[in-house]
Design goal:
Layout: H1 3-32, H2 36-62, H3 82-109, H4 113-143, H5 147-154
The structure holds MU-OXO-diiron (FEO).
The site of MU-OXO-diiron (FEO) has 7 residues, from α1, α2 and α3.
Length: 163
């Protein structure tokens, strides 16, 4: 495999790990407010990110490459409100989307079709990721002070491992 592409895929694997760390910190903040439904939603997000790590890890190994784990930066641990948490999560997902698109461009330039095919799953996933966080942002804005109702609803989210 192309050395620069391996580095970029490895970097994305580490960024997915960082994403899970940020969301774990967000889950903890929400739990500290006793918003356990919100915290549950965010816990599921952590699992999804770890599943994304797994995909990059396994893809690189299936192409005969090793992976390298980086130090994970310390995530933010306080926000002004649950709305601020989810707005931050949305901004973070937009960064992930840009990174995935950049990876697609990089793979395309060197005609690495296997990587392009692998990344297509993430292209679709990022649409869902942004949509699901955006939906929570909108709902929080709609319900205002009735956060506890939404908290109950978010408590229903379950983890479905990606196929
Ligand atoms: Fe793995 Fe939420 O991006």
């Amino acid at each position: 495999m192309d050395k620069k592409l391996i580095e970029s895929l490895n970097s994305q694997m580490n960024f997915e790990l960082y994403s899970s760390y940020i969301y774990l910190s967000m889950a903890s903040y929400l739990k500290s407010l006793d918003l356990n439904g919100f915290a549950n939603w965010m816990d599921i997000q952590v699992k999804e990110e770890l599943a994304h790590v797994d995909k990059f890890y396994n893809f690189l190994h299936s192409r005969g490459e090793n992976v390298e784990f980086d130090a994970i930066p310390k995530p933010q641990h306080k926000w002004d409100s649950p709305l601020a948490v989810f707005e931050h999560a949305l901004e973070h997902e937009k960064i992930v989307t840009k990174r995935i698109n950049d990876l697609v461009d990089q793979s395309g330039k060197i005609s690495d079709h296997a990587t392009l095919n692998f990344l297509q799953w993430f292209v679709g996933e990022q649409v869902e990721e942004e949509e699901s966080v955006m939906s929570v942002v909108k709902q929080i804005k709609l319900v205002g002070d009735s956060l506890f109702l939404l908290d109950r609803e978010l408590g229903q989210r379950v983890f479905n491992p990606p196929v």
